[in-house]
Amino acid sequence: MQHKLQYLLLALIVIFGFLVRMYKIDNPVADWHSWRQADTASVTRNFVDLGVDLLHPRFDDFSDTSGRGLFNPDGYRFVEFPVFNLIHYSFYTLIPKTYNLSLEYWGRMTSVISALVSAVLIFLLVRRHSRPFTGLLAAFFYLFLPFNIYFTRVILPDPLMVTLYLAALNFFDVWTINHKSYILILTALFGTLAVLVKPVALFFLLPITWYFWHRYKIKMLNLRHFWVLHLAFVLPFALWRLWSFRYPQGVPASLWLLNGDHIRFRPAFFRWLFGERLGDMILGHWGVFPLSLGLFAAGSFLPWVIGALAYLVVFATGNVRHDYYQIPIIPIVSILLALGVIHFATSWTKKAFILFVIFMMLGMTWYDIRGNYQVNNWSIIRAGQAVDRLLPKDALVVAPYNGDTAFLYQTKRRGFTHLPMPIKDLKDRYGIGYYVSVTYDPDTRAIMDQYTIMEQNPEFVIIKLDERPDYWQRKRLE
């Protein structure tokens, strides 16, 4: 295939990949996995409001997320190193605001742009180890699997992590050919950033380790290049974690992600990951056929497959609990699909059949994924708008939503996502001044009875935590 035609087809794939991600791109942060998106977006919003401080990222929730009973009144958020938030912030602040595009829009666009770059990197990587058409097909699957369409237009760091580890693999692939030092430096740089964004990137950098082992065996331990790369991948992240431990109230409990519910290798583990997630949600059942064929044709991509499987096994509970945890495996899934299609489609009848399989795969997965775009509860949006209209910008609030930060995010205020203690203690210890709720549960009704109601309607109530003058008189009469 001529180079001009390759790049023309790739450009068309990227353009249409961009267009399909514009579907509901202006959604409020209240669709699927809004809690995790809100956590990520709030770090960027605090960059805008408080200034950029990469070493002290903050979000809005004061609650105990450490699992140690430590409240977090400074709102520290020590999870991933905030590379995603810095890029998100840069888009929002540096691009002219002619079209009045929101912070949330640019958060989603950070992931969209990452996905488009990832598709190009997949094409380049696969083309070197196979045929150009296989690379184009892998890029197509990456951009048009409905699961990946949704999860590469969310405000999460995972799509950026994928782009960074793909860049590291590409540069390393080039280095194995020309052995130029600057290519090795670029490999180390992008691999370092990938691991800082999400440490699970280490599983997907396994092909680099495999290359050294396959070529040099135990002698790889004597190679400077081996140590330069692997120390670059690990040391900055280790330093970040050591720094994070200075602020334990800002480090969410995470060990449960490994095997917190002891599900690893149980029947439910295989059912959820390989049946519900990979087989149904990602491949729509029909895609299992070309994926299986692709495994037999994996060749040089086999270490990548092993790394992906190791990731699923090690982070067993995380992968079973959260479907967005499968974002990092989509590149190798796309490559295997492409390899399987090429391996099978050797005649016109087989080509017609595999086209039908692809059509059914995309249709079935879209049927499952389409619900992710729905806003779960419009009441939190309208309540948040009312809070932003009525309350001072520096007001601290309680916005109970079963511990979910999506509601607190909509208020554009900081505070608590539930009632961890009596209202009086929250006022005295943390300066909480307001309570806003979208449910009239017993807690809310008790607070309404004692404190001053600012606005009330069937969808929400906003309460100023000043006692009503007649409260104690009514209590005595009762």
Short structural description:
The chain is mostly helical and 478 residues long. The chain has helices at 3-20, 34-50, 83-94, 103-129, 132-144, 146-151, 158-178, 181-197, 201-204, 206-216, 224-244, 256-259, 267-282, 288-296, 302-314, 316-321, 330-344, 348-369, 378-390, 405-411, 423-430, 442-450, 471-477, and strands at residues 396-398, 414-416, 434-437, 451-456, 461-467.
Q: How would you sum up the major sheet?
A: 5 strands, mixed
- Helix count? 23
What is the general shape? globular
Tell me the strand percentage band: under 5%
* Count of all domains: 2
Radius of gyration: 25 Å
- Write the H/E string, N to C: HHHHHHHHHHHHHHHHHHHEHEHEHEEH
In round numbers, the mean pLDDT is: 94
Helix content: 55-70%
Class from secondary-structure proportions: mainly alpha
Stretches where pLDDT falls below 50 for ≥5 residues? none
Question: How many E strands?
Answer: 5
Ends distance: 86 Å
Identify the strand order in the major beta sheet. Answer: 2-1-3-5-4
Give your account of this protein's structure:
The chain contains 23 helices and five strands. The protein is mostly helical. The protein has a five-stranded mixed sheet, sandwiched between helices. Helix 1 packs antiparallel against helix 4 and helix 3 packs across helix 4. The termini are far apart.
Key words describing this protein structure:
2 domains, mainly alpha, 5% strand, 23 helices, 62% helix, 5-stranded mixed beta sheet, 478 residues, single chain
Structural topology:
Blueprint: H1 3-20, H2 34-50, H3 83-94, H4 103-129, H5 132-144, H6 146-151, H7 158-178, H8 181-197, H9 201-204, H10 206-216, H11 224-244, H12 256-259, H13 267-282, H14 288-296, H15 302-314, H16 316-321, H17 330-344, H18 348-369, H19 378-390, E1 396-398, H20 405-411, E2 414-416, H21 423-430, E3 434-437, H22 442-450, E4 451-456, E5 461-467, H23 471-477
Parallel strand pairs: 1-2, 1-3
Antiparallel strand pairs: 3-5, 4-5
Helix pairs in contact: 1-4, 1-5, 2-3, 2-20, 3-4, 4-5, 4-7, 5-17, 7-8, 8-11, 14-17, 19-20
